[in-house]
Design goal:
- By secondary structure, the protein is α+β, with helices and mostly antiparallel strands.
- It folds into 3 domains: 76 residues, Uridine Diphospho-n-acetylenolpyruvylglucosamine Reductase, domain 2 (2-Layer Sandwich), CATH 3.30.43; 123 residues, Uridine Diphospho-n-acetylenolpyruvylglucosamine Reductase, domain 3 (2-Layer Sandwich); 81 residues, Uridine Diphospho-n-acetylenolpyruvylglucosamine Reductase, domain 1, CATH 3.90.78.
- Helix content is 28%, strand content 27%.
- The strands form 6 sheets. The protein has a 5-stranded antiparallel sheet, with helices on one face.
- The longest helix is centred in the last third of the chain and has 19 residues.
- It is globular, with a radius of gyration of 19 Å.
- It is found in: Cytoplasm.
- Pfam families: FAD_binding_4, MurB_C.
- GO terms for molecular function: FAD binding; UDP-N-acetylmuramate dehydrogenase activity.
- It is an enzyme of class 1 (oxidoreductase).
- Keywords: Cell cycle, Cell division, Cell shape, Cell wall biogenesis/degradation, Cytoplasm, FAD, Flavoprotein, NADP, Oxidoreductase, Peptidoglycan synthesis.
């Protein structure tokens, strides 16, 4: 394989870079190659290169809702956090994929636009929010997104409407078409700054009171099973505090797994599997992971 640093001298690229330096869990082995594109053209160069060289491509944003295997990730990984421009035109906010959802909600607030308050504490990027249809406190990304700009694996760029994004619970069409989200546009409503800020502050206070934000975690681990709440099932199964290696079911919120002592991805996966097995045995409910588990698991 060619040296990508020589192939793309204008793009910052690192070889065998530990992904634990970038993930919210503080776990993850090395990426064969890790690139930090700063423009859409640089993203296209990288997408074209991996296609032409039959390489795999992994796209990350804030790496807040995923677990990267201890063996790392093959071929090329790109982190989009340097594509982070946010613009406001009338009642529309357009944010690039690497912009943080939190910064986007603040931009909306500062321009007296309401509709994004639910996302005030979601730690992911805009690209991740589109990919997963991120949501919290009764709100979902699908309810405010008009369209997204996506680069498909063949290098073409398409503007996908809300309908074409095929949003569902923690789902979008990006998961099937393997595209790279470049930006998204949110259509909001005029509102009062003080009211918007008060709602955002309230939701953030509730989040801080309930969630273990003081420890590394991958956010909400499990999808909500129909008719149940994952956290309550885990709590009722007596699993809070269950630990494998350095990963532990949070004693503050049972829906979170936290890194308490140099935990590894394997530790996280062990805890997840134990929780799934125990909840199935006790309540007959299958817990499906919301968190993405990617990379080599060795």
């Amino acid at each position: 394989m060619a040296n990508l640093m020589n192939e793309f001298p204008d793009i910052e690229i690192k070889q065998d870079e530990p992904l634990m330096n970038y993930t919210y869990t503080h776990t993850g082995g090395p990426a064969d190659w890790l690139a930090f594109p700063e423009t859409v053209d640089q993203v296209k160069q990288l997408v074209d290169y991996v296609r032409d060289h039959d390489m795999s491509l992994t796209v990350l944003g804030n790496a807040s809702n995923l677990i990267v295997g201890d063996g790392g990730i093959d071929d090329l990984t790109i982190i989009l956090t340097r594509l982070n421009k946010i613009e406001v035109h009338d009642n529309k906010v357009t944010a690039q994929a690497g912009a943080s959802y939190i910064d986007t909600t603040r931009m909306a607030r500062d321009n007296n636009l309401t509709g994004l308050e639910f996302a005030a504490g979601i730690p992911g990027s805009i690209g991740g929010a589109i990919f997963m249809n991120a949501g919290a406190y009764g709100g979902e990304t699908k309810n405010v997104v008009t369209d997204a700009t996506v680069m498909l694996p063949d290098g073409t760029i398409e503007h996908l409407s809300n309908k074409e994004l095929d949003f569902g619970y923690r789902h979008s069409s990006i998961q099937e078409n393997k595209g790279v989200v470049l930006d998204a546009t949110f259509t909001l409503e005029p509102g009062d700054y003080d009211e918007i800020k008060a709602k955002m502050d309230d939701l953030n206070e509730r989040r801080e009171a309930k969630q273990p934000l003081d420890l590394p975690s991958c956010g909400s681990v499990f999808k909500r099973p129909e008719g149940y709440y994952a956290g309550k099932l885990i709590h009722d199964a007596g699993l809070q505090g269950y630990t494998s290696g350095g990963a532990q079911v949070s004693t503050k919120h049972a829906g979170f797994i936290v890194n308490i002592d140099h935990g590894t991805a394997a530790d996280y996966v062990n805890v997840i599997r134990h929780v799934q097995k125990t909840v199935k045995e006790k309540f007959g409910v299958d817990l499906e992971t919301e968190v993405r588990i990617i990379g080599r698991q060795d």
